[in-house]
Amino acid sequence: MILVESGLDREAFPWQADWYRARAEEFLGTQVDNRFRVWIVDNALHGDVERQEDPARTVSYVGVLHEALRELVAWVEQGRPPLASTRYRIVDGQVELPDAAADRLGVQPVVRVTVDGGEVTHVAIGTEVRVSVHAEVPPGAGGIVKVIWDLDGDAEFEEADVVEATEAVTLSRTARFDKAGTYFVAVRVSSQRDGDPSTSFARIDNVGRARVVVEDSHVA
């Protein structure tokens, strides 16, 4: 069995996957790793729709479901084990994931977005900021095939980079804002187990954001 759990699920809370894993371990004992996986999908909600209600905050889990079905078939029919379960810990009822893909495992890329080098920056109107993304896939999880950018905080990804399938990528772009306010720039990264940028199947997404506070005058 491969259990796919959405990390931001509001209808079936993510910690319930750990409860089920514990029941599987009670039943299977030392054989649990030969029969069971749990893959947690960071930033995913309950519904299996491709178009998210807030595309700059969440991603669909459908690509992970595609991959789980493929891997389950190979596991049962060919005896080829799937990628390892996602590592996590439960803290006060919340599922916390490691920051690095090599530590997190599972199948989903890990994405970190910064603006001017941090998670938040304060700038004056019209000041250019640098938005950077670092993304990496867990070991054996294929390659990153696409990076798309929402540089004005409107939850529309107008800019795109198609990248040659790679296990890790670091990219940057610039943005500026003409009105005061708080903006969340976002970058969505897609990976694919076979490194195929042309297919829509088993494309696994994650998204990262950073905050830009634009003020009438720069505050040091």
| Count of helical regions | 4
The strand order across the widest sheet is 6-12-11-8-9
The sequence of SSEs as H and E is EHHEHEEHEEEEEEEE
How many structurally independent domains? Answer: 1
Shape: elongated
Number of strands: 12
Polypeptide structure, described:
By secondary structure, the chain is an alpha+beta fold. It has a single domain, classed as Immunoglobulins (Immunoglobulin-like). Helices cover 18% and strands 38% of the residues. The protein has 4 helices and 12 strands. Strands 6-12-11-8-9 form a 5-stranded mixed β-sheet. The protein has a 3-stranded antiparallel β-sheet with strand order 5-7-10, with no helix packed on it. β3 and β4 form a beta hairpin. The longest helix has 17 residues.
Short précis:
The chain is α+β, with helices and mostly antiparallel strands and 220 residues long. Helix content is 18%, strand content 38%. The chain has a single domain, classed as Immunoglobulins (Immunoglobulin-like, Sandwich).
Topology (SSEs and partners):
Blueprint: E1 2-6, H1 15-28, H2 32-35, E2 37-41, H3 62-78, E3 89-91, E4 94-96, H4 101-104, E5 110-115, E6 120-124, E7 129-136, E8 143-150, E9 159-166, E10 168-175, E11 181-192, E12 203-215
Parallel strand pairs: 1-2, 6-12
Antiparallel strand pairs: 3-4, 5-7, 7-10, 8-9, 8-11, 11-12
